[in-house]
Design brief:
heterodimer, A: 483 residues, alpha/beta, 19 helices, disordered N terminus, B: alpha/beta, Rossmann fold, 4-stranded parallel sheet, 14 helices, 8 strands, 12% strand
């Protein structure tokens, strides 16, 4: 019934999605509904598909895990996309299995990409982001009741959906209770800081580490180059490095093994392997004439960078497959979204994954992104002492610097991806969204003169489809008219 | 030149020692005195600070990083007003040497900014004297907290932040009449501007009495005295002379001196002591963990027999809003939330009346 109702609300796709390439003469890639994926899965199995241990039909996530939102999403039809989705949606099981095997679970919070590099450098540690629970209400279409439970804990809808993390900790149904919780604090968003503090008061001790607000070096100060063509004074890097040393001691204690320079350097090289794969994947997908992979799958793929979805080696396998698929499609000129689609740079992750489908349905495609963790995509310098390199990378976090600096990178990436419009999706209740959107738009308009739009995407955006459609379509039409 | 600061954890002593006039923003004459257009989700206090920075071309404004809204408010104003605005990085952690280092480094950087505004290099003895004066002022205000009427007290502390002066009503008029029949309350939360002082009257009118003002620029902002021992003063005296010879030789300052090209001349030990004193006495919601706020409140809530907490917060202030339930649980007291930027004061009055009625 829900599905029927949602279908009635769904807009008719405006973009010309190619269901086969005239040049290739073969059946080209396309996006499938969950129902269509049932048949596709059978087809792949008949064709001899070999899957990893976490494989299986997508529908089982709806039936067994209650990931009801999958019924509203449209997925890439490749076996590699299937592997990606299955990998993403089995993380909880992976963590429980690791715990059962005696591994230690580290809950890393807020820094998005730094502490997991350290944790995965040590044997027997698995790091994950409880922050990821912010997508649970979306995936489960709020059937989990996490947001309502958060409200009962005094964290209402004026906070960002990451509040779902609180009851998830309390009920223990979404991830195992971590052996340690490590949270960056300082120049982080107030929502997260307040929610994490609430968590600590609920009896989950937290190791806090300070990430100062990044600032440009003053005259006479020693400047330090950061990834992402950023710069900070050496004193700030020194402080972050000292804090990371402290975090390293906590991790060493958990692992029962020191996190020495060699161990961390190896961890950084592995993390960079993931980052290189992602950089190539983004380049291939974002700069190609049409989109060889859909925006939704790219968003999920980018998310793998921050903590490897609790399995670093498998992340490398998943990304290698995706890259191969994207390159093959590009060679065959087979695109999921064709060349006529408006090239959009997307800012901030969406609380409802469906929004990424909708952009393509309405005639756009993503040609660049800043999902708030660009520092987790940049290579960690390998020619520096490892902790220094990680400290510099942590300080390159787009959210700890000024909105103007973030905007400058967006402008550069817009140029690289030949963006025709910028979409800023606001996160409901997020304190940083109140001002930064306006600043980013101001810089983009001044430097590029392309249309920009900002709107809020709630965890379930179905009720807002008419509003979203009119705003998004308006900006896409303006961009098209400028061609 | 007037230098407005937006957090009580930026020491006015340091500004004053540079020959400039520190002005706590809360009671500034034209601060938050008019309704301003607000974009969705923007904090009215941060917005008012931004407007103040834009409007006061002849003054400087120090923003702090302790909340997202102020931090990002700085981003909006820095382009046009860059030479007059400063973002002070307030560490959120407090139990590590790094926090102290960040704070001390920010004081140095603030010093350079103040020098750029036309301030002079602080002399160590002058700084010590100013610290002493401010400490005395704070101490007088701390001692007045238990007897001084709420409105008069809030204004006295606000005035102290504004110009360093202490103006208290006559003690003997109030010592014997502690507000018989009214319910003792704590007002806890974010900043209270001049225009919002009427809220204290509203509480009184509803039958309550604020015996603990723990708003941003209330009693909570008054650090107890932190003594500078003789050794530090001695070092500081020596450093004055050392500084006089080194100030024109950037990077040539003697060991233990703050090496600021063409800038201030306070020795590292004194600066570190000031930083340590400020940081050690910082009691605020943004700290992680924020246990010190709870310890500070617990002691005073008990001593003053508080029966209820009024949580004063700006719409969208996650840091304070998130504390309502933990405060209920930690202190076993009823808590009512009051919107600081409530458009209709009547709604606040109604909430207060209902709250106090339930406490009778």
């Amino acid at each position: 019934m829900n599905q029927r109702k949602s279908k009635a609300q769904s807009p008719k796709p405006k973009g010309k999605e190619q269901h086969g390439s005239p040049n290739s003469g073969t059946v080209g890639p396309r996006k499938l509904s969950l129902a269509e994926w049932d048949g596709r899965y059978e087809e792949l199995i008949r064709a001899g598909l070999r899957e990893p241990g976490y494989g299986g039909p997508l529908r089982r996530h709806v039936l067994l895990e209650g990931d009801l939102r999958l019924r509203q999403l449209r997925f890439d039809d490749s076996a590699t996309a299937l592997r990606l989705w299955n990998f993403l949606l089995t993380e909880n099981q992976r963590l429980h299995a690791a715990r059962a095997q005696g591994e230690k679970i580290v809950g890393t919070m807020k820094d998005l990409g730094t502490v997991p590099v350290m944790a995965y450098a040590l044997p027997g540690l698995r790091a994950f982001y409880p922050d990821g629970a912010w997508w649970t209400p979306c995936l489960m279409e709020c059937s989990d009741g996490l947001l309502q439970q958060a409200e009962q804990l005094g964290i209402d809808a004026s906070f960002c959906p990451v509040r779902a993390m609180l009851p998830a900790f309390q009920n223990g149904e979404h991830f195992p209770r971590p052996d340690a919780l490590i949270c960056s604090t300082g120049a982080v968003c107030d929502d997260f800081s307040a929610i994490a503090q609430r968590l600590e008061k609920m009896g989950f001790p937290i190791v806090w580490w300070e990430i100062p607000r990044r600032r440009p070096p003053d005259q006479g100060e020693t400047a330090c180059a950061l990834p992402g063509e950023l710069c900070a004074p050496q004193v700030q890097v020194d402080c972050v490095r000292t804090e990371l040393e402290r975090v390293g001691q906590v991790l060493s204690g958990l692992a029962g093994q020191p996190l020495d320079t060699g161990t961390l350097a190896r961890g950084i090289r592995k993390a960079n392997q993931v980052r290189r794969l992602l950089a190539n994947l983004r380049r291939v997908v974002y700069t190609s004439p049409g989109a060889p992979l859909p925006a939704l799958e790219l968003l999920v793929a980018e998310m793998l960078a921050i903590h490897f979805c609790s399995d670093r080696e498998e992340t490398i396998g998943v990304l290698t497959d995706l890259l191969a698929e994207a390159e093959a499609r590009l060679r065959r000129k087979q695109f999921v979204v064709d060349e006529a689609a408006v090239r959009v740079f997307w800012v901030n992750p969406v609380a409802d994954l469906r929004a990424m489908n909708l952009l393509e349905d309405w005639g756009g495609r993503v040609c660049g992104s800043d999902y708030m963790f660009t520092h987790a995509l940049d290579l960690i310098p390998e020619d520096l002492p490892p902790l220094e390199a990680l400290a510099r990378t942590a300080l390159a976090d787009p959210m700890v610097g000024s909105a103007r600096e973030r905007a400058r990178r967006i402008v550069a990436d817009c140029r690289a991806g030949r963006a025709e419009a910028v979409v800023i999706s606001r996160i409901p209740g997020a304190s940083h969204c109140a001002r930064e959107g306006a600043l980013i738009r101001e810089v983009v308009r001044a430097d590029l003169g392309i249309p920009t739009i900002e709107f809020e995407v709630p965890p379930i955006c179905d009720a807002m489809l008419p509003t979203l459609a009119s705003r998004l379509q308006a900006v896409l039409e303006i961009a098209k008219a400028r061609r | 030149m007037e230098v407005f600061y937006t957090s009580p954890w930026v020491p006015p002593e340091w500004i004053k020692a540079h020959g400039l006039e520190p002005r706590g923003i809360w009671l500034a004459r034209d601060f938050a005195c008019e309704p301003l257009p607000l974009a969705s989700g923007v904090c009215a206090f941060a917005n008012a600070v931004v407007r103040m920075a834009e409007r006061h071309a002849e003054s400087a404004v120090i923003f702090t990083t302790h909340c997202d809204q102020l931090r990002r408010g700085f981003d909006t104003v820095v382009g046009a007003a860059a030479p007059r605005v400063f973002l002070f990085n307030l560490p959120v952690t407090w139990q590590t040497p790094v926090a102290e280092r960040i704070y001390a480094d920010e004081l140095r950087r603030l010093g350079r900014f103040l020098m750029g505004l036309g301030g002079h290099a602080p002399e160590a003895m002058a700084l010590i004297e100013i610290i002493g004066q401010y400490s005395q002022g704070r101490q007088r205000l701390i001692e007045a907290a238990p007897w001084c009427p709420a409105r008069a007290y809030a204004e006295a502390v606000g005035r102290f932040h504004l110009d360093g002066a202490v103006h208290l009503p006559q003690e003997n008029r109030y010592r014997s009449a502690p507000g018989a029949g009214s319910i003792p309350l704590a007002l806890v939360g974010g900043p209270l501007s001049r225009a919002q002082m009427a809220s204290l009257d509203a509480i009184e009118k509803a039958g309550g009495r604020v015996v603990l003002n723990a708003t941003e620029a209330g009693e909570r902002s008054l650090w107890p005295d932190f003594p500078l021992d003789d050794a530090q003063i001695g070092t500081a005296e020596r450093s004055v002379y050392a500084a006089e010879t080194s100030v024109d030789q950037p990077g040539q300052a003697s060991a233990g001196m703050v090496s600021l090209p063409g800038s201030c001349s306070v020795n590292d030990a004194l600066l570190a002591r000031l930083a340590r004193g400020c940081l050690a006495n910082c009691v605020d919601v943004f700290q992680r963990p924020n246990t010190r706020l709870y310890d500070w409140l617990r002691e005073r809530l008990t001593a003053r027999q508080v029966r209820g907490i009024v949580l004063w917060h700006y719409v969208g202030c996650d840091l304070w809003r998130a504390e309502a339930q933990p405060m209920r649980e930690a202190f076993g007291l009823p808590v009512v939330l009051l919107d600081a930027d409530e458009a209709a004061p009547n709604r606040n009055t109604g909430r207060l009346e209902a709250f106090l009625e339930s406490l009778r």
